[in-house]
Amino acid sequence: MVNSLSLEQTIEMLIFISQRIISNKDYLNEIDRTIGDGDHGDAMERGFSFVIENLKRKQYKDLGEVFLEIGNDLLRSIGGCSGIIFGTFFRSGGRIFSKIHKFDSLKLSEFLNVAVQDIKQRGKAKIGDKTMVDALSPAAQAITKNKDLPLSESVKYVAIAAKSGMEKTKDYIANIGRAKSYGEKAIGFIDPGAFTTYLIFDSMNCFINSIN
User: Fold this and answer.
1) 61 φ, ψ to 5°?
2) Which of 41, 71, 74, 210 could be bridged to 28 by S-S, CB 3.0 to 4.6 A?
3) Residue 196's CATH number
């Protein structure tokens, strides 16, 4: 049972998450092709490749510096709405983890709840708008309910909630972004940003529960 990750383990986890997103590039492009420009996977590959490069070569004094760096990397390398939203997500962690060297359930709860608010404020999205918020908001609710559990247990609920939220985007009409122009034709398709968000938490769960 894992209660927390060290600074070094958290960096390893973030590299693992980035690699998993990159490995899903083709699928992300495929689902984006149905209701978008078809380049979401390419954008994620570009951004998270840059993240991996920096995580492997730089030294960090605390977790806040790590998350802030990732957020800035994504903003610079991805561009567009995806860069802004995913950059905002990680930059929220930069504030919450400032001067912190331990990644645990309580700090993850604080991080995700602040990230939801920051992204809603930045993108004006809410549950049901067919965006990454549909996966992120349930994940934040799940960790809030389970923040007193060991990290290896709480993160399982986060991944399950994110998956459920992501799958529900199939039923929604897009109210924000490129997919908005598709109207009811967007029904039946997963939002690419929601899938990427689910990948982040599923990868987090896989990594943490692989530690002995």
Assistant:
1) -85, -25
2) 41
3) 1.25.40.340
From residue 55, alpha-carbon distances to 15, 18, 29, 64, 170 in Å are 7, 10, 25, 13, 34
pLDDT band for position 168 (cuts 50, 70, 90): very high
Give me the mean pLDDT over the 2-28 stretch.
Answer: 98
* Gyration radius of the chain over CA positions: 16
Q: Note the pLDDT tens digit of each residue in 96-133.
A: 999 999 999 999 999 999 999 999 988 788 898 889 99
Q: Per-residue pLDDT tens for 99-108?
A: 999 999 999 9
Residues 69 and 33 sit within 8 Å (Cβ to Cβ): no
Counting DSSP H helices and E strands in the chain, the numbers are: 9, 2
Give the number of other CB atoms < 10 A from CB of residue 123: 19
CA separation for the pair 128, 114 (Å, rounded): 19
Residue showing tokens 């806040």: 64
Which residues constitute the domain of residue 185?
A: 4-208
HSE-up of 162 (CA within 13 Å, CB side)? 26
**Token pair recorded at residue 142:** 């799940």
> What backbone torsions phi and psi does residue 4 show, to the nearest 5 degrees?
-160, 165
Is the dihedral angle over the CA atoms 158, 33, 21, 26 positive or is it negative? positive
Total domain count for the chain?
1
